[in-house]
Amino acid sequence: MHIKSFLRPILVGIVVVLFAAACDKDYDELGTDIVGNDHFGFERYTGATVKTYNEKLGPIASNNLAINPLGFYENPAFGNTQANFVTQVELASVSPVFNNTDTELYQMLPAIDSVVLDIPYFSTLKTTNTDGTKVYELDSIYGTEASKFKLSVYQSNYYLRDLDPTQSLGEQQLFYTNQDADIDSYKVPVLLNNLPASDPRNADGHENSQFYFDKREHKTTAPNDDTTQPDVVTRSVPSMRLHLRADVFNTLILNTSNIDQLASNALFKNYFRGLYFKTESLGNPGNMAMINFKGGKVTMYYHEDKKTIVGTQPATYPRVAKTYVLNLSGNTVSLLNNSNENGNYLTAINNPTQEAEKLYLKGGEGSMAIVDIFGSTDVKGYTLNPNYNSNLPISASNIKYLLTNSPNGVSDEIDDIKANDWLINEANLTFVIDKDAMANTQIAEPNRIFLYDINNKKVLVDYTYDFTSNTSYPKFNKYVFGGIIEKEDVDNGRGIKYKIRITNHVRNLITKDSTNVRLGLSVTENINNVALSKRKLPVTDGIFSAPSMSVMNPLGTILYGSNPIVPDDKRLKLEIYYTKPNE
């Protein structure tokens, strides 16, 4: 449904007033154009030139992303993706004191009982049963729920430095999606999550060889200090909970001979360089989750004794239960491997100068699209008619602009709109999803796509002046600007299209002589973050970066492009609603 926008004059400056209904509908915009009397009509125009191209991203900087994918899945429309991850580890408190060599105080060295890695998943509480158990639904999980993969956690010996020595240590050190082989070659080849299937805690192999994202809550039971009372039950949200090798942490941390390396996190991150999470396919479609690794921790549960004297009684050395925490903080890198890529996908992204029949948008080490509007033909120009009288009707003898028939650095299509004195009410780009191409994939489609000024590496004015928000789901903020997927109105309906409003961008091209820039289109994980990540050199097309939120998002979609062979009802068009003076 298209809703007309009724606009009133605004005296000084630019005031953009946006209002919204629900995030899955079209929206009105109150802008800056004069309408509302018999001299004006309301028209729709779709004849503007639009050309689109695919752009292969290749390796791209993926360090210190807010969330990271982990897992393995198959997407027939694009190919297979393996997502690994490496993170530094930091001491929760520096210079810890675990024991003392003074035998007057201590009889035994402290001993680790267990080491537990715990990283909460994104989840939603659905119900709480009468017995207190909670039922959760996991968010941001892609693939086939029942699919499993092999998960191995190793100590990393690859140093993730903060600053780039090739830039005189003045810039952040960048790490890229294609550095998995480098990280893997530097791992310490001792499996940390090595519980055998014979251990009741890993009876189904879910901690390593048959890993899956478990949506069940965790329940632990501990004796009550008051022995007359029931045991204490603790429940916690679903998470990746793995038992790690106690002997490794005992040697490196609890009873280390290098205690000085625990004096600061700067020293510790060079001593214990991090954890490397490696996934391997088990031959099924796979499963992948977006995870906030920085919300995780490694907890060492240990006991130590300390001399106790009560009055004249002989000294005792009771064992005291303690914990020490390592945080999954510091530098991180998302590591991606693509394989078995779809032939149609490869053909499209390896022909960046061919006007696209289909646009392949894929996150991670994937692809984006380039959109050009209004064409580049510039053989005629216009100049303001000095004899034009705005108080008289427009006629053959009273026109606002005079044709100069000389290039003026502005697209002829923009010049024509300006010469016709159109007042732009609304302008949209609507991208229709190729449902046939996406039909064989069970992977979810991206909830949102993002359009930006690729020449100047900045957002469009329509993004800037859209202050709409969705408090329940902030990823749907700026919903007038749009890019949110529209789906079939049925259970588990597939995507139909994405619509992005560029009204103010088009107005500026016509009324303010703004430069007509190329537009970049990508998937996005979060519309509120518009940072860019650098592509790995060499880059031959002059596009040196892409949205970081595209790197974070593992999903992809196929849209119809602008090539003339695309059916008219599916081909990408620039849709303009305008008013013009009646002659």
Structure description:
The protein has 583 residues and is mostly beta strands. The protein has two domains: 42-60 and 341-375 and 421-575, no CATH class; 79-98 and 120-296 and 327-338, no CATH class. The protein contains nine helices and 34 strands. The strands form ten sheets. Strands 5, 6, 11, 12, 13, 17, 18 and 21 form an eight-stranded antiparallel beta sheet that branches. A hairpin with a 3-residue loop joins β5 (68-75) and β6 (79-87).
Topology:
Layout: E1 17-18, E2 29-30, E3 43-45, E4 50-56, E5 68-75, E6 79-87, E7 90-91, E8 111-120, E9 123-128, E10 134-138, E11 141-143, E12 149-156, H1 180-185, E13 187-188, E14 218-222, E15 232-236, E16 239-244, H2 246-254, H3 265-271, E17 275-281, E18 286-291, E19 297-305, E20 319-327, E21 332-339, H4 343-349, E22 358-362, E23 367-373, E24 382-384, E25 401-403, H5 412-419, E26 423-432, H6 435-438, E27 449-453, H7 461-464, E28 482-487, E29 495-501, H8 503-511, E30 519-523, E31 532-534, E32 545-547, H9 548-552, E33 556-560, E34 574-579
Antiparallel strand pairs: 1-2, 3-34, 4-23, 5-6, 5-18, 6-17, 6-21, 7-20, 8-16, 8-19, 9-10, 11-18, 12-13, 12-17, 14-15, 19-20, 22-33, 23-30, 24-25, 26-29, 26-34, 27-30, 28-29, 31-32
Quick overview of this protein structure:
This protein has 583 residues and is mostly beta strands.
Number of domains as seen in the coordinates: 2
Given the helix and strand composition, which structural class is it?
Answer: mainly beta
Largest sheet: 8 strands, antiparallel
Give average pLDDT, whole number: 88
Q: Give Rg in angstroms.
A: 30 Å
Tell me the number of strands.
34
**Which band does the percent of strand residues land in?**
25-35%
SS element count, helices:
9
